[in-house]
Amino acid sequence: MTRALLIIDVQNDFTEGGSLAVAGGGAVAAGITDYLRTHPDEYQLVVASRDWHDATGDNGGHFATTEDPDFTVTWPAHCVAGTPGAEYHPALDTSLIDIHIRKGQGKPAYSAFEGTADDGMTLAEELDARGVTDVDVVGLATDYCVRASALDALGVGRTVRVLTDLVEGVDPVSSLATLAELAGDGIEVVSSDGAVAEDDAEAAADAADVDAAGTTAGTAHE
Ligand SMILES: [Zn+2]
Fold it and tell me: SS3 string of 137-162?
């Protein structure tokens, strides 16, 4: 098993003080950094995505330009490429990130799977190239880009978990509904502590199997 952490859109515009701020977004950034530093062996690959829109035009109807945003399909301008709003939140330790995905150039793109890495490969291609079987999803926002990315990870055949204490949504009600929807689709919805406990139990069971096999082999030789 090869597991990746997928960090969705932990950017200044999606956190406190940004143009499309999610309450608690800054705490998510700090929480993800703390989680990765505390559990350095949990992931073989760490991927982060950024919304990366064009400065001109409405990005395929994604930015509200003539009317007020409806906060469902149209949004205030956000995460324009090259601006401070598009940068990662400063509490996210970017030295821990192996692959950077950019998405949304000239169009709406909720899922990280719609973006490409610096080498031009899609996220699915990057996961394939590294044999990633399992994906944990964290970041912003639960009811939009986390949801779309988690569903796409499932769609490309990965085992998927969403870590509930490391996500925040635009709207609390729709975020809870989203977690229930994802659970119904076969995505595990679990806290980061719960996820680590599961993995530790699995590793202990694997080690016990190896011990048992080793003992059997040893006996056969005698
Ligand atoms: Zn966007």
Answer: EEEECHHHHHHHHHHHHHHCCCEEEE
